[in-house]
Specification:
Layout (H helix, E strand, L loop, with lengths): L1 E6 L6 E6 L8 H4 L4 H12 L10 E4 L7 E5 L8 H14 L7 E4 L6 H14 L18 E6 L4 H26 L7 H12 L5 E6 L1 H7 L2 H7 L7 E7 L8 E11 L19 H15 L6 E10 L11 E3 L5 E3 L7 H12 L6 E6 L3 H7 L4 E5 L2 H14 L3 E3 L4 H7 L7 E2 L8 H10 L16 E5 L22 H9 L2
Parallel strand pairs: 1-6, 2-4, 2-5, 5-6, 9-10, 9-13, 12-16, 13-17, 14-15
Antiparallel strand pairs: 3-4, 7-8, 8-10, 11-12, 14-17
Helix pairs in contact: 3-4, 4-5, 5-9, 8-10, 9-15, 12-15, 13-14
């Protein structure tokens, strides 16, 4: 989708008209330049109450000699914030038919600039499909072109906002593409290769790949243990944006299990195909780096993705194994399907080498989080209450809910209660599984400068198992990977 901004009242292609509940006729601000026949048709459906402008509702007007139009509901005026406009924009694309054509003109009446931009953002977010593996469609439409009209004094600021949002959405779409790829083509080294090629697009980005042999030599026992049973060996990818800048910057760490069979602790067959999405954490991280780079962010940001494929094999790790991680801490492996936390144990410890301002990890980590929060919210844990609040508020700002969860000492005690190792990779029972997983990860968050008695680096864990895919209530995407929290992270990082 290409979005442009321009003042004026001419209508190119199909007219898109966002309206509030209770609108009974075409507002004066919408009417200029509109064919009288089209205006009459709109007044009829509005006056008769055929279109009530409920939030996210649409109505197409196709039969008028005066052109085509789509009415889009914003809901009640008092409730019409940026989120309502964003959802309305997404509903526009979801409700668009081929007969509307590929040229659209969006006309607002007295809307704030931030709301107009949000509407365009919703359109761009929803304008996504993953059809790489489908046969060429001769009837495939051309790219959508959208013109947003505004007052002359709004053009510069609105254009700037939409340009930035276009860059952010490119990161969301990248995250979705990575998640939707089939596992025979999206495996650890393929992911790393894509990151390597991506970095060539930017002069201020550097990507380093730690391969399997290097990971063994470095002592990354968690990453190695999970991936050694696959013929497609694990690796770690390090991303540095503006790495030459002085001072500390954010650090993002992503779980990247490109396919999760469960290993020796084999998963049930039903819905196992969805385990291609188990690299959603790494996709979120990669997508965020793209969003930052594409928008020209000048601050320092570093990221790590921990890539592995969890397969059963003669040389796969076993329940009962004890592994030694990069930190030197040992882990008793009680279930090989609790593998994401193992690769993250090395990623989190590696993150400390960069002396970051803070660390945030992303992982499709536990089914227990889905039980707790459904597909409506991401679980959020942190060792710093103020930091957790900042992330929560960043998610609220962009309409991506991250719900604060408890990180209790009892959960930590449960995960360090191994008789033969420093930690165990599974809790003592089925209860609170998302909380105990977070408590496990906390054991591998380094202290500042790795000082034995120093203060732990501010850290947060985001469990996106319920929100990265299968979230049918997420109106910003039709199906598949959602690209959740790329926008959250962009907001958090760029707003300091």
């Amino acid at each position: 989708m290409k979005v442009s901004v321009s003042p004026g009242h001419n209508i190119n292609g199909t007219l898109i008209m966002p309206l509030f509940e209770g609108t009974e006729s075409v507002p004066d601000g919408h009417a200029e330049g509109m064919h009288t026949a089209l205006r009459s048709q709109m007044n009829t459906v509005l006056g008769d109450g055929d279109f009530k402008a409920k939030a996210k509702s649409t109505m197409s007007l196709m039969g008028s000699d005066g052109g085509k139009a789509m009415l889009v509901g914003l809901g009640k005026k008092d409730d019409a914030d940026v989120h309502a406009y964003r959802k309305a924009g997404a509903a526009t694309v979801a409700g668009r038919k081929k007969s509307h054509g590929t040229e659209l003109t969006v006309r607002f009446s007295g809307a704030p600039i931030e709301c107009m931009a949000a509407f365009a953002e919703g359109m761009m977010l929803r304008d996504y499909s993953f059809d790489k593996y489908k046969a060429e469609d001769e009837d495939k439409e051309e790219e959508l072109t959208v013109r947003v009209t505004c007052d002359a004094d709004q053009e510069k600021e609105l254009s700037s906002r939409i340009e930035t949002l276009t860059g952010v959405v490119s990161g969301v779409h990248l995250s979705r593409d990575l998640g939707n790829m089939p596992p025979n083509d999206m495996y650890p080294e393929a992911f790393a290769d894509q990151a390597w090629e991506w970095a060539k697009n930017y002069d201020n980005v550097e990507v380093t790949i730690i391969n399997y042999d290097q990971a063994i030599k470095a002592g990354m026992g968690g990453l190695v243990a999970v991936g050694m049973g696959s013929s497609r060996k694990p690796c770690m990818v390090i991303y540095e944006l503006n790495g030459d800048k002085e001072g500390r910057g954010p650090m993002l760490v992503g779980k990247g299990i490109t396919f999760d069979t469960g290993g020796i602790s084999l998963k049930p067959g039903a819905n196992m195909d969805e385990m291609k999405y188990d690299m959603g954490g790494s996709a979120t991280v990669f997508g965020t780096m793209e969003a930052l780079a594409a928008t020209g962010f000048e601050g320092k940001v570093t990221a790590i993705t921990c890539m592995a494929e969890n397969m059963p094999a003669a040389n796969a790790q076993r329940p009962g194994d004890v592994i030694t991680t990069l930190s030197g801490k040992t882990i008793e492996v009680l279930n090989t399907d609790a593998e994401g936390r193992l690769v993250l144990s090395d990623g989190l410890w590696k993150a400390g080498e960069f002396d970051p301002e803070y660390i945030i990890d992303f992982a499709t980590l536990t089914g227990a989080c889905v039980v707790a929060l459904g597909h409506e919210a991401t679980g959020l844990w942190s060792n710093d209450d103020d930091f957790r609040t900042r992330i929560h508020e960043a998610g609220n700002a962009v309409g991506e809910l991250a719900w604060p969860m408890p990180l209790l000492p009892a959960f930590e005690k449960e995960m360090t209660d191994s008789k033969i190792a420093d930690t165990r990779n599974l809790g003592a029972g089925r209860w609170g599984g998302a909380n105990t997983a977070a408590a496990f990860l906390k054991q591998f968050v380094p202290n500042r400068n790795y000082e034995k008695d120093g203060e732990q680096i501010p850290w947060a864990h985001m469990d996106i198992a319920g929100t990265y895919w299968g979230a049918k209530t997420n109106t910003m995407v039709g199906n598949g990977a959602t690209g959740i929290h790329v926008r959250t992270m962009y907001h958090l990082i760029t707003n300091g």
